[in-house]
Amino acid sequence: MTKKLALLLVLAMFLGGCAGMSYTEQRTLSGGAIGAASGAAIGAIAGEAAVGAGIGAGAGLLGGYLYDRYEKYHGRD
């Protein structure tokens, strides 16, 4: 029960903290979070969840930032 409550609090703080961010910051952070989760899952299968999470987070941050640049360049933002 304690772990669920802690996860809920972290999630609430994370979502509340995004309220004042720019689109670039939101997309970069979202990409990093999605990349870290995906990397951890793939890394867990391969035996190194922490390494996978780190690599995934880096790739996700870069992907989120590049996506933001693409959207702004094409006037969709």
Verbal overview:
This protein has one domain (21-77). It is an all-alpha fold and 77 residues long. The chain is built from 3 helices and no strands. The longest helix has 25 residues, at 49-73. The protein is flat, with a radius of gyration of 15 Å. The chain has helices spanning 2-17, 23-46, 49-73. α2 runs antiparallel to α3 (49-73). The chain starts with a helix and ends with a helix. The mean pLDDT is 82.
Quick overview of this protein structure:
This protein has 77 residues and is an all-alpha fold.
Strand content: under 5%
Derived from helix and strand composition plus strand pairing, the structural class reads: mainly alpha
How many separate helices? 3
Task: Give the oligomeric state.
Answer: single chain
* Record field, number of beta strands: 0
Keywords:
77 residues; single chain; flat; mainly alpha; 3 helices
Layout of strands and helices, then pairs:
Layout: H1 2-17, H2 23-46, H3 49-73
Helix pairs in contact: 2-3
